[in-house]
Amino acid sequence: MPFHDMLVDRYGGIVKIRGFFGTEQLYISDPRALQSIILKDQESFDETSVFLETNKVIFGPGLVSTAGHQHKRQRKIVFPVFSVAHLKGLTPVFYEVAERVGAFTAPTFSNVLADVIDTEASRNEDSVIDMADWMARAALETVGQTILGYSFDPLDSPHNNQYTSAIKDLIPTLFKLSLVRQLAPFLTRLGSRDFRRTLVEWTPVPAVQAVKGMSDVMYDTARGLLRQKQEEVKRGVVQDRKSVIGALLKANDEASAADKMDEDELIGQITVLIFGAQDTTASSLTRLLHTLSLHPEVQDKLRNEVAEAVSEGGRLEYDAVMSLPWLDAVLKETMRLYPPVPFVRRTTLKEQAVPLADTSNLPAQIKDAGSVTIPAGTIFFTSIAGANRLESVWGGDAREWKPERWLQGDRAAVTGVERLPGIYSGIMSFLGGERACVGYKFAQLEIKILLVTLLQRFRFAPTKQNGEIVWNLSQILSPSVRTQDGKERKGMPLGVERVI
């Protein structure tokens, strides 16, 4: 991430860089250019063929691996599934998982690290827990219960299951195959599907075999669950709770023949929705807990707000959860400053001139025009993290974590002269336009309910007994512990104290 930050800090909102095999690429964070790319001229830009073809191999033909008419057709069916009305019905399910997380972890604290004592609070016994691992498991179980009505992980043992491990390791493993992935558009057209499968099985590269295994776990699970739900519908089985897959199957059945998705597309949607809702949400939750541990005064304000709202010890309804001002501010500010996905790649489908807000570091001809023309076929990075930290948008304190900037509303938070095309309060973390995250409201609710439940029961504090927490970039940011000898291991240990 320091390299990405340097590109924006030193060179400005649009930078020419060299990519694989010396190709000329762009790194873009300029707000006016992003308005053109994400909204105004979005038909001129799309995902790269490497991204689409790789995702198609791993997830199937879901939203992250389709483009053009097929993508619009799928989005038309999937987007309404995440309506506010449907999310309100799922709120109790979110609570059930959140409360299980709290119920399981609390009694085991003294057994996890009984020998760890906080010398600055000797009257309390401290426990250190890897919250990254628990947030990954909680996010998967929440997604499983709400999207599929299925339990991936009952959270009643200290171990991950097969699906959790597959999702957790997929992105880091794919990052190791960055060079191989550049060949995906060619390899996916090589011979028949069976031939390509055999070719993969014969490839003596551990990372390739690992990705194949992860993809198989996700595909087989999604296909089995889809057929189970379809069979239940045929038998007229009445579900005792709502699920996203139920709404998706209903919407697909009611769609016109031209819009209806086939089985492979439905499997693709399920796999993408589970993966997309789990990995980024787990990263966001882990970052939120880490950040709150570093700002105990804000953590206390948030806990007091929650305690006041939950005066009778019951669950908050959807509207109450979503209207808590400090909770909303903390989530928005953390997503702004620390987006779990700091950039995405795009390609230019046809030559397009994009306007620029800042031309101070650019050649005279670009300054005079106030825009730059991007040739067709150009690969570029859309810098989410860079745009989210622009002083021209957020003001002089753009690089500071200040949740209070949101307490007066979204418009008050944007203090600069420029605006971003983000679907979520002008933040780029869920993107915008036709490639915006369809489940961004789902993610907000999931994160807020988990935080509400955890903060009622626990206080989180940083701990340095195990080393320094660092955030690694492998497309989705994830934490590791770096020890004094420079070695790193995955995870984010925090001191956890029961408050009730």
UniProtKB/TrEMBL annotation:
Main localization, broad class: membrane
Cofactor: heme
InterPro entries: Cyt_P450, Cyt_P450_E_grp-I, Cyt_P450_sf, Cytochrome_P450_monoxygenase
One GO CC annotation: membrane
Functional pathway: Secondary metabolite biosynthesis; terpenoid biosynthesis
MF annotations from Gene Ontology: heme binding; iron ion binding; monooxygenase activity; oxidoreductase activity, acting on paired donors, with incorporation or reduction of molecular oxygen
Keywords: Heme, Iron, Membrane, Metal-binding, Monooxygenase, Oxidoreductase, Transmembrane, Transmembrane helix
Gene3D superfamilies in the cross-refs: Cytochrome P450
Keyword Transmembrane: yes
Subcellular location per the Swiss-Prot or TrEMBL entry: Membrane
Residues that, per the record, bind heme: C437
Domain of life: Eukaryota
Protein family (similarity comment): Belongs to the cytochrome P450 family.
Protein name: Cytochrome P450
